[in-house]
Amino acid sequence: MKKFLQEFKEFAMRGNVLDMAVGVVVGGAFSKIVTSLVNDLVMPLLGLVIGKINFATLAVTFPPAREGADPVVLAYGSFLQTVFEFLLIALCVFCAVRLINRMTRKKEPPAPAPEPPKGPTSEELLAEIRDLLRAKAE
């Protein structure tokens, strides 16, 4: 049992697990912000533009199957809001990942400039002078 707990502690304390936990918490908070944005700002404005429609109340009601039962309500307006909310969250995540990828992309090092042609070394020059002096002396 002690070994199991030790292995669990090592697993839980890895950087990736802690990063993932932080991501889940921040993602939950972000989801609440987007939900509020969609429900309280975007959908009312969209409903106003379309014709004073409240998407949250859009539904189809079917009569009850038997006496005394509740009617069946298909709240497709709520579904539309949830789909729009998902699309907005997906767009935000896509933009964030794209931005992070751009920031972390390794930049290609510039190609090395071609070296200028090297002239003869001092040893080569001295050897050439020596050879010329020998040829002149002969």
Provide keyphrases for this structure:
mainly alpha; 138 residues; 4% strand; elongated
Brief account:
With 138 residues, this protein is mostly helical.
Total DSSP helices: 4
* Biggest sheet statistics: 2 strands, antiparallel
Strand content: under 5%
**Radius of gyration, in angstroms, nearest whole number:** 37 Å
Give the overall shape: elongated
Q: How would you classify the helix and strand content by structural class? A: mainly alpha
Mean pLDDT: 82
Instruction: Report the uncertain regions.
Output: none
Question: Tally of extended strands?
Answer: 2
| Distance between the first and last residues' Cα | 97 Å
Major sheet strand order: 1-2
Q: Can you write the helix and strand succession as a string?
A: HHEEHH
Which percent bin holds the helix content? 55-70%
Question: Explain this structure to me?
Answer:
It contains 4 helices and 2 strands; from the N terminus they run ααββαα. The protein has 138 residues and is mainly alpha-helical. The chain has a two-stranded antiparallel sheet with strand order 1-2. The N and C termini lie far apart (97 Å). The model has no long low-confidence stretch (mean pLDDT 82).
Write the layout of secondary structure elements.
Blueprint (H helix, E strand, L loop, with lengths): L1 H11 L2 H36 L9 E3 L9 E3 L1 H29 L17 H16 L1
Antiparallel strand pairs: 1-2
Helix pairs in contact: 2-3
